[in-house]
Amino acid sequence: MSHHSKHLFCFGLGFSALVFARRMMALGWKVSGTIRPDSDKDQGKKERLESEGIVVHNFDRSVPLAEASTVLCDVTHILSSVPPGKEGDCVLQLHATEITACEKLEWVGYLSTTGVYGNRDGGVVFEDDPLSPSSPRSKQRAQAEKEWLALVDAHDIPVHIFRLAGIYGPGRNPLDSLKSGRVKQRIDKPGHIFSRIHVEDIANVLEASVNHPRAGRIYNVCDNAPEEPSKVTTYASQLLGIDPPPLVSFDDAEMSPMAKTFWLDNKRVDNSRIINELGVKLDYPDYQSGLKSLL
Fold it and tell me: How distant, in Å, are the alpha carbons of 170, 187, 245, 289 from that of 238?
């Protein structure tokens, strides 16, 4: 099949999906996808993306994709980055029928999170480990994964699950947060580590999977250097030549309920499957190389 007959459709043209979409477009693929009709905070996103050559449709839980069968009929690759809500995964609820009717589908990717593993007290997690999500949001994720994977057996749809660690990249990283003054503190919780991944490396993994499809496969997507967040902030401050924000003990730190849920889990995410099976060579194997490149 020539590149010109490849058509990537992204449910949710967000931070990670767009980096991947632009990369495939540069390879000559046709790319289309969805944004939320209410993206007021991002006025002109539709026009901006369309000026790049991406065909943009409105979609969210209350606004199904118009003429979905027609829109999806020649799609060869689907990426969903739409998070589930309390009511479940709206992409599947609204459009499973049209997705399973796509006759040319070679690959489907679902962007999940490493939150599905829950807490491991600093232990290592592998893709085949049983899941024990600790927050309602992570429980919804685990359920959505299950529903996407069910399409493999029920409809022979080549679904792949990507469990992403903390995502950073241009415009979304500790350097920007420090410069804008959003980071008021470093939280001191010794031994509590997080994994992260540069957005370009997410695209590297997705592209490698597209080239080596393996229906039903799950991949952890993170770099080689899990670390305490305070140390990452300290390193970013050094790169910027500024004093790091004050260290505050975890118990005294002021945090939103959302931020607190991230601290329920302490685990090391193993990435050997993307390296060994997909042959991915990470552009940014650790946060040091990633932040330096963003400076």
Answer: 18, 17, 11, 14
Q: Encoding tokens for residue 174? A: 């500790």
Count CB-CB contacts under 10 A for residue 266: 17
The rounded distance, in Å, linking the Cα atoms of 220 and 215 is 15
Entry pTM? 0.96
Asked if residue 273 has pLDDT above 80, the reply is: yes
For the chain, the 3-state helix, strand and coil shares in percent, each to the nearest 5, are: 40, 20, 40
Nearest to 35 by CA among 45, 47, 25: 45
| Full DSSP string of 157-195 | --EEEEEE-EEEBTTBSHHHHHHTT----EEE-TT--B-
Rounded mean pLDDT of the chain? 96
168 backbone dihedrals φ, ψ, rounded to 5°: -140, 165
Cα(131)–Cα(128) distance, rounded to whole angstroms?
9
List, in order of start, the domains of the chain with CATH numbers: 3-169+197-222+269-284 (3.40.50.720)
Is the pLDDT at 42 greater than 80, yes or no?
A: no
> Three-class SS of residue 90?
helix
Judge whether residue 3 has pLDDT over 80: no
Helices (H) and strands (E) in the chain, counts: 11, 13
| DSSP type of residue 6 | -
How far CA 51 is from CA of 12, 124, 247, in Å, comes to 18, 44, 45
Quote the pLDDT of residue 172.
Answer: 97
